[in-house]
Amino acid sequence: MTTRDPSSTRNRILDALETLLLEKGLAQVTLESVAAAAGVSKGGLLYHFKSKDALLAGLVLRLAERADQQLETAVAQGKSVAEWYLQAPHPDNADDALEIAVQRSMLAAMRTLDGPQDGDVAAADRAFDAVMAKWQAGLDSEIQDPIHAQIVGLVGDGLYLRALLGLPPVAPDLYRRVVSRLLKQPSA
What we know:
By secondary structure, this protein is mainly α. The longest helix has 25 residues, at 52-76. The chain is 73% helix and 0% strand.
C-alpha cells in the first residue's frame, strides 16, 4: 500500500488554481472548477483549503516562497540583491511572460483577499510582508546609504509593476544605463 504525499495534492490544487486564473480569470474560478482541474473531489480540495479565500491565500504564500527562492538562487550565483531586484521581466521572453502572467494572477488574488482578516488571509499577508521585508533588508545590507537602498527598491517595484501592467518595456540601452547608475554607490 502506497502512502500519498499530501503536499503533492496540495501543489496539484494550487497548480490547477494558477492555470485557471491564467486561462479564465478570477471571476471564473470556483472551488468546483479548481477541484475538477486538479483531479480531486471538492471534499478533497476542502481538506487542504477550507474556503476560496484559503485557496487564494495558499497561492499567494506559494508565489512569495517562489520569489524568495529566486532571490536566493540569484545571490548564490553571484548576483547582487540590487541587480536581482532591478531585473524587469520582459514580455518577449517566454519564461518572463509566464512569470508576468502568474504575478498578475497573484495580484488579482490578493485584491480579493481584502475581506475580514481570518487566519489564512492574515497568514498570506504576513508571508508577503516578510518576503518584501527580507528583500529590503538585503538591499539595506548591500547598499550603504539607506536612501539609495530605498530608491533601488522603489525603482525595482516600478519596473516590475510596469511589466505587470503590460506597459512597453524601457528601451534596453536606457534600461542598462539606469541600472548601472543605480548600482553605483553614492559617495558620502
